[in-house]
Structure formats: C-alpha cells, structure tokens
Design goal:
This protein has four helices and no strands. By secondary structure, it is mainly alpha-helical. The protein has one domain. It starts with 12 loop residues before the first helix and ends with a helix.
Length: about 110
C-alpha cells in the first residue's frame, strides 16, 4: 500500500515523479512456464507503453520473464539485491526453473 505522502520524510512521490503502482501479476500455480510467459507479456505491454519499471517482490524466478521482455531488442542490466547469485544450473533433481536458477537461464538466453 502506497500512501500519497511518506510519514517519515514528507516526500510526496506521485508529485515528485510520474510514477504509479501497476499492481501485482497473479501467478498460475499449476503452470510455471505459463506464468513466466504471462509475466513476459505483461512487461512487453509495460515496455511498449514507454514505462521504465521498478519491480520488487515475488519469487526470484520472476526476474527471468521481466528480463526476457526488456532484453528482446537491446542489452540491459539490472540490480539484484540478494545474498546468493541465483546462478545454479538446476535444483530438486534437475528442475531448470526455480528460485535458484533465474540468472543462469538469463545468461544462457
């Protein structure tokens, strides 16, 4: 929940910058691959609207479809705050898409 003004700083972010909370993207719990495709489509629309997103939260794997959307036409970089690199090849007996593998998949792609 974002307030119009920060109680701690008095800053009014919606007046200081053209920004908006675009809401959450609902996952499809029964289909991980479909969920990632849905997230990529959402961020394709964000990109096509000329919006530069600041994305937070979610499982680590959600970074992969966001990167897919924005890396289609140009190289890009991101800032990732985590105590792990998330560069593992697989987890849980060979699973390629988990919270520990998104940046390995991104580098491969």
């Amino acid at each position: 929940m974002m307030r119009a003004q920060s109680g701690a700083t008095g800053v009014r972010p919606f007046e200081a910058a053209n920004c908006a909370d675009l809401g959450d993207i609902a996952p499809k719990p029964a289909d991980l691959i479909d969920t990632m495709a849905w997230v990529t489509v959402f961020y394709d629309d964000v990109k096509d609207a000329g919006i530069r997103p600041l994305t937070t939260g979610g499982d680590h794997l959600t970074s992969l479809p966001v990167l897919r959307a924005f890396a289609k036409n140009r190289p890009l970089s991101m800032i990732h705050f985590d105590s792990h690199t998330d560069l593992f090849n697989s987890y849980f007996g060979g699973t390629k898409y988990t919270y520990g593998t998104p940046f390995r998949r991104a580098a491969e792609e």
